[in-house]
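U., I forgot to send this yesterday:
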Amino acid sequence: MSENYPVEGAGLGLRRALLKPLEGQSPEQISFLEAVPENWIGVGGRLGKRFRAFTERYPFVCHGLSLSIGGPEPLDVEFVKQVRSFLDQHDIRFYTEHLSYCSDHGHLYDLMPIPFTADAVHHVADRIRQVQDILERPFAIENVSYYAAPGQEMTEIEFINAVLEEADCGLLLDVNNIYVNSINHRYDAEEFLTALPADRVVYFHVAGHYVEAEDLRVDTHGADVIDPVWQLLDQAYAHCGVVPTLLERDFNIPPLADLIDEMDIIIELQKKWSQPAASVSHG
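Result:
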């Protein structure tokens, strides 16, 4: 495993629908798994034992849903402490969350866009540092898909880079989200990608989405990854090097063999950029 990354190779998001298929086999393509901590914290009994069996078999990372890192309400310190205990209990190698918010006097059950403002940068960076202090370990935020930009005073890339710099945290780079946003907000995906700091990347996400209209994509994680997103992943390896990459699939989950076919594409691209002759920029 590279010292730069908590895991290596290709990974798969563990969903409950995949427990039974994965209990019966251990595909060689799967080097690590990712879990949503909110789905497993406090889960005991038979289901908890089944999850424990997976964390004993595979390296794990966690990607959360309800931290609400950009929210106006005070940070839920008790929840962060629960996450820390969960990470310790299962020897989870890294914890990430969305650069968004999902609460304001209650849970909003959606990931809302943070205004791209200097005040928001300071607010989010302060909360990220607080999370890292409680966890006593590094933490990374994910670039998210969004469909409106309220109160925008800077560009998306300026906002993300300012948060990363001020908070001194990692980046979970979601390739599909860059592609979706590039269509919805009319910018060049590769230009955006190469403006992100490669040295802060912890791992990649890749996923499918829904085509609502010619100029509107919806990030669903409910379909196969499309060719332009695979091409952007290839460009991401060119920019960052061979980064661990996780396939997300949350809905319309196909047979495990179909997911493995997609993971094979990830592995082939990683092999391509692992070759000594490959010209890899680490800019």
